[in-house]
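Example 4.3 (complexes with small molecules)
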Amino acid sequence: MSARLIDGKAIAGEIREEIRRGTRELAERGVTPGLAVVLVGDDPASQIYVRNKARACEELGFYSEVHRLPKETPQDELLELISRLNAKSEVHGILVQSPLPDHIREKAVIDAIAVHKDVDGFHPVNVGNLVIGDDALLSCTPAGIIEMLKRSGIPIAGRHAVVIGRSNIVGKPAAMLLLREHATVTVCHSKTADLPDVVRQADIVVAAVGRPKLVKADWIKPGAAVIDVGINRLPDGKLCGDVDFEAVREVAGWITPVPGGVGPMTITMLMANTLKAARRAAGLA
Ligand code: NDP
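Answer. The structure with NDP bound is encoded below.
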């Protein structure tokens, strides 16, 4: 039997409706959620991401500003801009698009963003609050994964979740969020022994690796939920995930496609974080 498709676009659309409602509620108090996006350099993919974020703001009635800086911008200048944005009341969320040029230390940039405006959820205080279970701005892709599971009616509590990948932006926060939802969590990486055997034990598989079609059908427990975070460009120009989609869908119970799965959720969760930051700034829970 073929797996049920988890339609990221449809779920993202549902959440965007909720964000619109929240935005209208804030408007009654004279507040418009605001997002500042900073792009350093001219990486073509980053330019597309930044444009999409500005477009999402427009669609949802957010205020947005985009700062495009030349790639040779000194780190101090970038930090000064962040400091101005930290102080600006119209801006509730700040996002500095990665990758950054080599001469800029990513950690210095993340640390410089005010914790309450860190809508990427990368600041150590937000990461720490996630780990200890306090309220935090959550990293967007992992937050999107949890929303997809919940809104698809996939049980998490008591299930074994295997996360492949341990990056700070996807793997680790996804594992922490699954743990917070009471899954039993295993985190795998490039040194994991017998990866297929570990994945075979999973009720929920999250693949965040960046290797096309790494996860095979015979790694999957029949009926498992498979969340494919990977975005890989094949030589023919097509996009594919980390999961061998056509084969795995015959075994899994649920599966996310690439594109149209996790991708649309990430930007939507960024908007949800910006709304949350704006609500907090307005003194709402
Ligand atoms: P990173 O390169 O930072 O991390 C990749 C992880 O995969 C590392 O932990 C690495 O292990 C592990 N890994 C690499 N090879 C193997 C292997 N053969 N077996 C098991 N584990 C392996 O990537 P990101 O986390 O940033 O991104 C992962 C993928 O998700 C990429 O394709 C990226 O484009 C995509 N992505 C998609 C998003 C979306 O919105 N859909 C958002 C963010 C990312 P180790 O730590 O040992 O090196």
